[in-house]
Write a structure and sequence with these properties.
It is elongated, with a radius of gyration of 24 Å. The protein has one domain. The two termini are 38 Å apart. Helices cover 8% and strands 52% of the residues. The strands form 4 sheets. Strands 1, 2, 5, 6, 9, 10, 14, 15 and 16 form a 9-stranded antiparallel sheet that branches. A 3-stranded antiparallel sheet has the order 11-13-12, with no helix packed on it. A hairpin with a 2-residue loop joins strand 1 and strand 2. It is mainly beta and 238 residues long. 13% of the residues are buried.
Length: 238
Amino acid sequence: MIPSSLASFAQTTLAQPDQVFNNTSPEATLTWKPSGNVTLYGSYRTGYKSGGFSISGSISPLSTAADATFAPEKVSGFEGGIKSTLFDNQLRLNFDGFWYIYKGLQVDYFDPTTIRYLTTNAGKARTRGLELETEFAPRSAPGLTLRASAALTDAIYSSFSRAPCLGGERPSEGCNLTPNAAGAFTLQNLDGQRTPQAPRWVATLGGDYVKPIGDNLKIGFSPNIRYSSRYKLYAFTG
């Protein structure tokens, strides 16, 4: 139960009576099949994620009105590629590229200094990349399926000049904007920095082999490996 003093604080100081958001997210796709086994496509797509309220930001006496709410997130961009089945449908090979721009990217984070989970909006983020995916099921080896994929992604904050600092982050590490009453800096500029959980390279390799060993039994093996280049775990590190 929320203490009455906090509930009153949230109602009178932070919580806005309501938020109303309206959005239309159109998209269009063109496809061309030069043959029965090959499809080329290109698309323009948009997306939307509603704004809302940060609950702990609404009830904490340490919060400001800006902590209580966050704005919608919008994305738009292009994607295109090729999908194919080759060698008498034994090989599936897909390749695509994409480029998307996010406006008001919603970023969730935990503020350890005030013990609050909050959501804020980055100005803009850009993600672009290439993906390759293949699957091979040779008829000469019944029950065997081999798979592989690779992805190259470049994802950055193109505009996030007032990002929160990590607890204990020093000015030499980038936390050098907007000092508080105690003289400690609270914000940093992350323009051009990579977004979290977006490794530049990801690759997978695996397969399945299933073999009958009786009228009602089968034995199977499914080895898989995955490679990822290093990436940021937290949204606000340079």
